Structures are given as C-alpha cells and as structure tokens.
Amino acid sequence: METPLADLAGRARVGLGGVIVGHEAALEMLLLALVCNGHVLLEGVPGLGKTLAVRTLARILGVRFRRVQCTPDLMPADITGSSVLNMATSEFRVHEGPVFTDLLLVDEINRMPPRTQAALLEAMEERQVTIDGVPRALSPLFTVVATQNPIEFEGTYPLPEAELDRFAVKLKLDYPEAAQEEAILTRHHGRVDERTPAAAAPSIGADEIAAARRSAASVRVDPALLTYIAAVARRTREWPSVALGASPRASIHLMQLAQAIAALDGRDFVLPDDVKALVKPTLSHRLIIAPAARVRGITPSAVLDEVIGMVMSGLDVSIPRLLRPPAAPGREP
After folding, report:
1. Tens digit of pLDDT for each residue in 37-88?
2. Ranges in the chain, pLDDT < 70
3. What is the pTM of this model?
4. Of the candidates 23, 44, 300, which has an alpha carbon nearest to the alpha carbon of residue 150?
5. How far, in whole angstroms, is CA 26 from its chain's centroid?
6. Measured CA distances, 306 to 111, 229, 235, 247, 298 (Å)
7. Distance (Å, rounded) from C-alpha 313 to C-alpha 128?
8. Helix (H, G, I), strand (E, B), or coil: what is residue 186?
9. Residue 332 lies inside a defined structural domain of this protein
10. Total structural domains in the chain?
11. Are residues 194 and 248 in the same domain?
C-alpha cells in the first residue's frame, strides 16, 4: 500500500537524483525529518554538496527557501528582522528576516555567536520570533537545516546542549565513493548546472506535504514499543559514562521518525527495527560523554550500541509479536 509519504518520497528521490550524486540515505532522512516537523543538523567537510542538496530539496517540494551564512558578527536582527522607520509616513514597519520562510538553511551554524543562537532557538522551538516585544508566528512548514564543519575550531561557538536538543536528527555526510566522484566529474564536464531551476522543477506542494504529515502521524505505535523507546532514553541517563542523556523531547522525535519510516514503507504500524535504525541519528548528538570516559575513547555511538542491546534483551518477551502485521478488524491476532 502506497502512502502519501511514500509517493512524496519517491518523487523527491527522482528529483534529487537528477542533481545530487550519492548521500541517498541522508537525504531520505532529511525528508523524513521535514515531514515530522523536525530540524536537521548536517555535519560534513566543505564541498560535499550540503547547501546544494537542501536548496534542491526546497525547489522540488515547492516551498519557500532562505539561506543564512553564519559569521562571528551575525546579529539576532540579521535573522529575525527588525522595525524600520518609513521616512515618508513616519511610521515603523517590520522588515522580516530570513526566518520568515518554510525551509531555512543555516550554513556553518557553529560560527553563529551566542546571542544569535538564542534568537534562532526561539524560532526553532516556538516557531515564532519576537520583534520589538511583539511575537510573530512563522510558517507552519518552518524547518531549520543547519550545517557545520567538524574540523574547524577557530572562530566557532560550540552549540549549547539546549540547541542541540532541538535538532531531531544529526546526519553526517562522508566523501563520495570512487564511482560517485567520477559521476560528479562527468556531470560537470558535461556542463550540467545543478543551480538552474530546470534542474529540479517543483513537483510537490504544501498540500501534499501536509497529507504526508497526516499519513505519518496516523501510524500506530504498539504500547510495547513506546516502552522500548522510553527505556532507551532512560537508560542513556543512567549510563555510567554519560554525563547528559537523552531528553523526553528526544523520545518524541524518535517515535515520530519511526512512524514516518513505517509510512514510507507503506505500513500503518511501527516495527522494532524502525526504532533501532533511528536511535543513533536521533540520540547521538544529544549525549554528552563524561570527560573521563571521553579520554578512554568512549563515543555516543558505542554507548547507544550497548544501550540498545541491553534494552532489547530486557523486552524480548513483548517484542516478537510486533513483527506480525495487525490482525484484520473483527479477528483475533
């Protein structure tokens, strides 16, 4: 059974494939996060096509797109907007900043100074900004995709834990494989300009995005899986080598993304494997490893591997029945 989300994702893959070479799994996760109304943190070295991918996705989805290039002197008003005096009427009018859009790309977010990070935090969490004391609502589709370079530290500001927790997923982009890099060179040798509008014509609209969101939200999550998700989050808070574990917000994001993956596969119920596949991209950036454990080389990924194994072994009795599709109405499972 093809769901609205599966149909949307299929067309998005086709459009992105005509412009972007590789990164299929990361781009699919980016789309799922947008459907779940969640923000995304993209990490990778320069030149991997992060900006191009987000701009292309916005064009395919037919949503408004704005981009902010972060610098150490970026001010809050540069992203939220400000009141400007109209000399002709002697009245102030609001000049809206780039956050008044549907898909906002924040390039090199770790170069954004703390005051501006705080302004962005309000937009990400409340989906509103306050200008001259007046709150102004943002678009219902408002989503932040932020990028950061993991190898540069000079002139950067590490993201605070509160802001990291607002990102539904963190995705890491690696260098392309040999065949993929050759394909990239072939395209550019043929002078295909991915930045032209014709390279990825809009094929999806806001109504279809809303339908995909309803499709994902209607997916059933068995109470045993809710117990599993909660147990994973709680176990990270109790783990000896973890100074800060996953928050309840992380549990919600994990559940919503699992629903989206199920809808993408044409199912109306979530499987344990859906949750397991999302634990690392959803929780790893939220875990703060204790200094002593970090010195020993312990990473969030290693902790989550152990947590998943321990929690799953404790729920073996209730999990197997979830591997079967739900019974037909009026029949016993």
Report:
1. 899 999 888 888 888 888 888 888 888 999 999 989 999 999 998 878 777 7
2. 1-2, 152-155, 190-203, 314-333
3. 0.84
4. 44
5. 10
6. 34, 15, 10, 18, 11
7. 43
8. helix
9. no
10. 2
11. no
